[in-house]
Amino acid sequence: MRPMLFGMVLGIGGLGNGWRVAARLWGAPALIGELLAMAAALIWLGLAAAYVRRWLTEPGAALADVLHPAQGMLASLIPVSTLIASLALAPHLPQVAWLLFLAGLAGVLGFAVWSIGALWQGGRVVEDTTPVLYMPTVGGGLVAALAAGTFGQQDTGWLFFGLGLLSFLAMEPVIIKRLLLATLPSGQRSTLGVHIAPAAVGSVALMALTDQPGATPLALMLFGYACFQALVLLRLTPWLREQPFGPSAWAYTFGISALPLAALRLVERGAGTPVTLLAPLLFVAANLIIGWIALRTAWNLGAKLRPSPGRAADPQG
Fold it and tell me: Domain of 203: which CATH number?
């Protein structure tokens, strides 16, 4: 059980939040949003139990995952997905959601301090620099800000928004320089899905923290940059598909679900024609893409669970 699987919670939970806004904005069925939110919370619970079990039964392998120079920072998905689970449960189990929110904040901050402290000691090679580096501070900080705003903790949210936004501005040139100088091998290309997320999540987080009209232009700017990133990935689709489908495909869903959510929130704020035209297109595209990834994942899992013909034919097992 690898930390990257927690990306499922971000994609499904983010899509559920989109359906919640669509229910308010367009009268979409509210039940769909709540079912997706509950699915995200249940997936988080199952993955969390499996991850604890891995640490108990295979502590060496679990530690090796966290210490991996390129993929180790995916462990930040655990506290970030905990925050997403808290948002999913907030309307239904507020006390449980509050405890998850606090645990998620502590996890985000703790892992960010530990992982960035390791980065500052150097000793890395260029191949270890991928968009995964965004996750501890940028992804963690911005999702924490979004969750804090939703739970009415604006001051705390602004602290984490500063962590996320300023880390994004610092990390972005590092990632772009790496992409310019050395191509990503096929096995790492799904990490580019993370590249869409910071600007989109930042836009949503900003709108969760304040309803001041002056914040809307900045939210629009962040949304515009996220749209540009999405167009670049669309242009790279044939190159990205050289990587075989697997659990890493869920890395795309974080940004894919955040992009229409930002558009929907901007429409709620009274954004003009470009965003109102983009919002339904992005929402439909996100549902189709994440739905396809979920179906492919379920099909692959079913294929692994089905007995082989040879084994099924042997009555002795």
Answer: 1.50.10.150
